[in-house]
Design a protein that fits this description.
homodimer, 207 residues, alpha/beta, Rossmann fold, 2 domains, globular, DNA-binding
Chain lengths: 207, 207
DNA sequence: ACTTTATAGTGATTTTTTTCACATTAATAA
DNA sequence: TTATTAATGTGAAAAAAATCACTATAAAGT
């Protein structure tokens, strides 16, 4: 199966578009519909599908429910994925309160911070001190972690996560984590995103 | 000049790494240092630099300050970029309070919401009703907008932004904005980011 | 001053990704 | 029933991106 990063991102977009099309009552779609909805070409859509062995009907397009089901399979949506959040600053809190994870079968199992005023065993998502991080990951077999701590603490938190058995990390700290292990790391850097945007806006002005 | 998306992202990462190296007292760096710090190859670093006409010294590497300066030029850091945020839910608030934009010459000029309890003319970043959005963009010649409203409102907000003259949008709403115009749109979808991570974690388990 | 060495810079090559274009086929129409 | 049409699926071609491998050269060493 494909290892093309862009292809995975596109599949994710297709799924997102499909869910909205389904809500609108669509029963079948054509590759061109998905292309329009996600800003790509119909050939690209079909090629992506073919990489994942997703097929439709000649002249009949694709069945929306079938597509969604196959994509849910790709992204492991038949299982619940437990996630922990480390760092309850603004971003951590935003994630904690974020609706919409549930329908993606993502469950926030716990959050961690160093600030004792934030601890709370009894909230829907319990908040524990950082010292309990390793123990919690191991006991609950957590595979996914979000790092939302300041940059100086990020590498240290990452090391604890790695040692405790985390397999995937979403990193909001504005540094590239030093990662030799097999842990998958996706970085989201808000400054960089805006910077990137500015680059393209400037480039567009020049042309 | 290059139109390679990945290359721009890498340049951004190099800059981030350079700032940290500078803080550690580094005066010069080699392509291999930057490669290590950002998880790429030294040949890639040099190739990226050559696309932007960035040069160093044979056997002497690159001067850190020079590199940072050239990259700041690329990303328009000599100008202040005014940004508005629409939607003061969790993500909007997180952005509003986000430190670190200043040093990137990004200034949040105002925020907008429909909830009147959030309005505040006198805070450091004023919060206005959505009705004032168009007027504010035009009067202050805002070029960059952040959409942090629920999905159902996102397209509508985007249309207002487009009509008022916005050139670049960072979209946190979980939909692909319908964009035929020349406006640059970068999407950040938290669910999709986690989903993506899960894909790679599952893929790693299988192999 | 000369030699050695380590690193930048880059054309050539390889790999990856996207696009093209057409054969195939299922639905519709005649 | 047969012809027509409109979409899929995919091998081939093109384009884009990454890697390789070598030249040039500036710094360090002798």
């Amino acid at each position: 199966m494909s290892t093309n990063k862009n292809c995975i991102v596109r599949i994710s977009r297709y799924k997102n578009a499909l869910n909205r099309l389904k809500a609108l009552g669509f029963v079948k779609v054509f590759s061109s519909n998905l292309a329009d909805a996600t800003g790509t070409s119909s050939a690209q859509v079909r090629k992506d599908f073919s990489l994942f062995g997703i097929t439709g009907n000649k002249r009949g397009g694709y069945n929306v429910d079938d597509l969604i089901e196959q994509m849910n399979q790709i992204f492991g949506k038949h299982l619940v994925h437990k996630v922990i959040i480390v760092g309850l600053g603004n971003i951590g809190k935003a994630l904690l309160r974020y609706k919409g994870f549930e329908k993606e079968s993502i469950k926030i199992a716990a959050a961690f911070d160093i600030d004792s005023s934030k601890f709370n065993d009894n909230s829907i998502v319990p908040v524990y001190p950082l010292e309990k991080l390793s123990e919690f990951i191991k006991e609950n077999e957590i595979k996914l972690g979000v790092i939302a701590v300041p940059d100086v603490a990020a590498q240290q938190v990452f090391e604890i996560m790695k040692k405790s058995g985390i397999k995937g990390v979403l990193n909001f700290a504005p540094i590239s984590l030093n990662n030799d292990s097999g842990v998958v790391v996706n970085n989201i850097n808000l400054e960089m995103e805006l910077e990137n945007l500015i680059y393209y806006v400037i480039a567009a002005e020049k042309s």
